[in-house]
Amino acid sequence: MIVNEVGEPIGERLRLPTPKRKTPANLLKTIHRLAKLSGRFHRVSVGFPGTIRNGVILDAANLDPSWKHFNLIAALGKTLRKKPVRAANDADMQGYGAISGKGVELVVTLGTGVGSSMVASFRM
Fold first, then answer.
1. pLDDT tens for each residue of 4-55
2. Nearest to 62 by CA among 107, 14, 111
3. Quick check: 51 and 58 in contact, CB under 8 A?
4. Chain-centre distance for alpha carbon 10
5. 3-state DSSP call for residue 35?
6. 3 vs 84: CA distance, rounded Å
7. How many other C-beta atoms are found inside a 10 Å radius of the C-beta of residue 7?
8. Nearest residue to 14 via CA among 40, 42, 33
9. CB neighbours of 39 closer than 8 A, spacing ≥ 6?
């Protein structure tokens, strides 16, 4: 989905079926197709269902083992027209989008597993 500078949708949500084998190569092909359907965009944000540090997947329990040590940011940058890419755990990404920036906020995600994100915002 393409959103404006404050996170409001400016287009329809696009969906394609998830490949049966959830390998990096298969999912990158699907993401490439989604990007073509999306039209023009300037940057990419990704919520990934696993542990990710500096763009590299450390663990993805619900996906194919080939995701371990996969550099998601580098691969997506190449696949998505060399656009800047940021990636984080999917619960963290949802937390960033949901917080108001006041106090301690907890986001819990329920899906194929349970995820959480806690953000503490204090003004001095």
1. 888 788 888 899 998 999 899 999 999 999 989 888 888 888 899 899 999 9
2. 111
3. yes
4. 18
5. helix
6. 16
7. 10
8. 33
9. 2, 11
Q: What is the token pair recorded at 91?
A: 């619960």
The token pair at 108 is 């819990």
Written as one letter, the residue type at 64 is: D
Q: Which residues pair with residue 120 across a beta bridge?
A: 104
Interval 60-112: pLDDT, tens: 888 899 999 999 999 999 988 788 999 999 888 888 777 777 788 888 888 77
The tokens describing 20, both together, are 């049966």
**Which three-class secondary structure state does DSSP give residue 67?**
helix
| Among the listed residues 9, 8, 87, 12, the one whose alpha carbon sits nearest the alpha carbon of residue 43 | 87
What amino acid occupies position 123? R
- Domains of the chain are 24-121 (3.30.420.40)
Find the DSSP H helices in the chain. 24-38, 72-79, 90-98
Q: Name 61's bridge partners.
A: none
